[in-house]
Design brief:
Blueprint: H1 5-13, E1 24-27, H2 38-51, H3 58-64, H4 67-73, H5 92-97, E2 106-111, H6 115-118, H7 127-138, H8 142-148, H9 154-184, E3 189-194, H10 203-206, H11 214-218, H12 229-248, E4 268-272, E5 276-280, H13 284-300
Parallel strand pairs: 1-2, 2-3, 3-4
Antiparallel strand pairs: 4-5
Helix pairs in contact: 7-8, 7-9, 9-13
Length: 313
């Protein structure tokens, strides 16, 4: 199974998906940060309805409104799952930590420059705005954050903004996925890091952007870039790993560089770049920071449980 990684992550966690797949490939992100409960989501829905002046027959009234009006009124660019007590009886992190996930082999990974297409506004970051935002967001942990992601100048603030975005939204999620699957599961996990920059005039600006690996995985070079022989060769290698994994649960095979199963102690990932090889501790300082950050959040707020919607089972 290889679809949007957040969706794959939830399916791997959900008891409703038990037995529906024999291995999983997650490309880009997961759901291991603290999650909302069903009650939280329902309150958000009530606030949304109130913002549109709807107070009675809420579902019927909202369903009668044009989709364009609802999209315009929404304040969130994406939807995310919540702990509803049915699809997810607990937080994804808790399900994996307790070994309750659908236990299958996994490939997970992320790209070196996830934010260049997903958060292009970060290119306008100034040192002043960056440091102000970090102080406001991280409080007592801001100093530790700035040691990893400094913002002493405007250019440094831009670089750090993109690095922190990659590490928090993608890298930390995928390393956590590999770590927990390895710790509580009985099948191997394989971690990758995609650093190759597709060719063309956009290459220097976008670099190894979000979803840049997809043409290489499927051998379908659908973007109008000036693809080179090196791109097709890289595609042959990556697709071979993916096919091997789909067949056997192990990406390794004849003629391919050895891809070690993930081990938290060595923290190795296979880099898909201009060269292919094993790297240890990719972006470790940043990912370790977010480990501590999310542990702190969980220590302050009780984790949601399955009671919210248990009666619907």
């Amino acid at each position: 199974m290889n679809v949007a990684a957040d969706t794959v992550n939830v399916l791997m966690a959900s008891p409703l998906a038990k037995g529906l797949f024999h291995c999983v490939i997650g490309e880009s992100g997961g759901q291991f940060s603290p999650m909302k409960t069903l009650a939280d989501a329902e309150k958000a829905g009530d606030r949304f309805a109130s913002s549109l002046g709807v107070s009675a027959d809420v579902l019927k009234t909202l369903r009668a409104k044009p989709a364009e009006e609802l999209l315009k009124a929404g304040d969130a660019p994406t939807a995310s799952p919540d702990v509803d007590g049915w699809v997810l009886p607990q937080e994804t992190n808790t399900i994996f930590a307790e070994g309750k996930q659908n236990d299958v082999p996994v490939i997970v990974g992320f790209n070196a420059d996830e934010g260049t297409t997903l958060a292009p506004q970060l290119a306008q970051t100034t040192a002043a705005s960056f440091n102000s935002r970090i102080q406001q967001t991280y409080g007592n942990s801001a100093g530790e954050f700035l040691k990893v992601y400094p913002g002493g100048s405007d250019s440094e603030a831009v670089t750090s903004s993109y690095s922190a975005y990659r590490d928090q939204v993608f890298g930390w999620q995928m390393r956590t996925w590999a770590r927990l699957a390895t710790k509580t599961g009985h099948h191997p996990a394989y971690l990758y890091y995609f650093t190759h920059r597709p060719p063309g005039p956009q290459s220097e600006r976008l670099r190894a952007f979000h979803a840049a690996e997809i043409p290489y995985v499927f051998g379908n070079f659908f973007w109008p870039f000036p693809w080179e022989d090196a791109d097709h060769k890289l595609s042959d290698v990556i697709s071979s790993y993916w096919v091997n994994f789909a067949k056997t649960g192990d990406p390794n095979g004849a003629g391919l560089a050895k891809w070690p199963a993930y081990n938290p102690e060595t923290d190795q990932a296979l880099e898909f770049g201009d060269q292919i090889g094993v790297r240890s501790q990719v972006n470790k300082a940043g990912l370790d920071f977010f480990d501590g950050y999310y542990q702190g959040l969980r220590a302050k707020v009780p984790a949601p449980t399955s009671g919210a919607n248990a009666s619907n089972k």
